[in-house]
Design brief:
single chain, about 140 residues, alpha/beta, Cytidine Deaminase, domain 2, 7-stranded mixed β-barrel, 3 helices, globular, MPN, proteasome, VirAsm_ModProt, metalloexopeptidase activity
């Protein structure tokens, strides 16, 4: 499996994380799901109700509005994203404990170094973590 992510959406995600720094940012990732690839079509920044550099909790009202919009667009929920302002882009113990949806993709953007690093994971049984390759797409091409 591979994730295709337009560079423009990646930059939107980075901008969201930098705007919220030093707090964690969070949001939803939607698109088209095929057998061998996930095509990201849109990201939806959410409010982090925890207002924290170490935790995030999405606003349920905002989530509900996004779910309605996603249905109207004909897309599917791929997963969610959040930033790690001071740590690497890998799931923390808390991230794993809160990963209840085994089909969701968890995108984590690290701002720990000068160049942001985005990685994507699937988490099974709240402990088995597997990284999924992200292919960045520019103007419809790799």
């Amino acid at each position: 499996m591979i994730i295709e992510l337009p560079v423009k959406l990646y930059q939107n995600l980075v901008n969201h994380a930098q705007k919220e720094f030093p707090k964690e940012c969070c949001g939803l990732v939607v698109g088209l799901i095929n057998d061998d690839k996930l095509e990201v079509k849109e990201i939806f920044p959410m409010t982090n109700l925890d207002d924290s550099a170490e935790h995030f909790s999405m606003d349920p009202k905002e989530q509900f509005e996004v779910v309605k919009e996603v249905r109207e667009l004909g897309y599917e929920m791929i997963g969610n994203y959040h930033s790690h302002p001071f740590t690497p882009s890998r799931p923390s113990n808390e991230d794993k404990e809160l990963a209840y949806d085994e089909e969701a993709i968890y995108f984590i953007l690290s701002l720990q170094k000068s160049v942001p690093v985005l990685k994507a994971f699937r988490i099974k049984k709240q402990q088995d973590v597997s990284e999924i390759k992200i292919r960045f797409i520019k103007n419809g091409e790799e």
